[in-house]
Amino acid sequence: MHRRLLRLSLLSSLLTLLATGCSRSPEEAAALAADAAPTTPAPLVIQAPDADPGATSIIWRYVDPQSGEVASASSFEAIPSPARRQVVVYDPRNEPPPGWDFVADLSNGLPATAEPVANFRFTTRSSVADIVRDPAPGTTEPSTAHEVIMFSTQGCGYCNKARKYLSANRIPFTELDVEEDPKAGPRLQALGQKAGLSPRDLQGVPILFIDGRPMVGWDERQAAKLLGLGG
Predict the structure, then answer these.
(1) pLDDT tens track of the chain, all 231 residues?
(2) 44-227 belongs to which homologous superfamily?
(3) 84 and 138 in contact (C-beta within 8 Å)?
(4) Is the model's pTM score more than 0.70?
(5) Is residue 172 a contact partner of residue 71, using CB atoms and an 8 Å limit?
C-alpha cells in the first residue's frame, strides 16, 4: 500500500511538472507567435535619380502592354506609360527578404512608395508569334542591349540566381513562367526549334535565350560570355 501511494505521488508530481513546463502566459505565447511569424519589410521610398543618384541601379519589372509578357527596364523612363500602374522595383541596395517583392504604382511618376507584397506574381499573356520582340514605341534601350528571354518557375533556385545576375548587371529581360503561363511552353518549343534544340533539350529550368542563342541551365560564365560582360 505504501509503495502504491508513493508511485501515485511520484506520478502526480511528474504530471504537475509537465503541465507547468508546457503552460505559458498569454504574453509569452504572443511573443513566440510574433517571433514565428514572417517579418513584413518596410515600404521602399523611390526617389528620382536627381534626388538619389543611386536610383540608377534600380531594375524595374512590368508587364509589357504590347506583348503581355514580363519585361524589365534599367530606367524609369523606359517603362511604357500604360505599364506603370504595377511595377516591381528591385533595388540592390535594399533587397527584399525571400518571398517578398516591392510593388509600386508609378502612374504619377517619382517619387513613389513601393509596398512589400508576399509571393507576388504578374498576370501575363504571351504571344507565340512575337518570338523576337521589338522595343515598345517611346522606350529607350542602350545600343548594347541584348534580347534576353528566360523560361523559369517561381520556386527554382537557379532561376533566382539568374534573375539576380541579370538585375545586378542591369540587363533587361523577358521572363516566362512555364508553370503559370499556358503559352510559355509553345513559345519555348518555338525558340528551341529555331535554335536547333530537341524537345529533350528543353527539360528543366532555367532556360535562357540570349540574342537567340540558348543556354540550358544557369551558368554564370556562359551568360557573361553571351552578354559580353567578360568572366
Answers:
(1) 555 544 545 555 545 544 554 455 666 655 555 455 558 899 999 999 999 988 888 888 888 888 788 888 888 998 999 999 999 998 888 888 877 889 999 999 999 999 998 878 776 654 322 323 333 344 334 435 788 999 999 889 999 999 989 988 888 888 999 998 888 999 999 999 999 999 899 989 999 999 999 999 999 999 999 998 865
(2) Glutaredoxin (3.40.30.10)
(3) no
(4) no
(5) yes
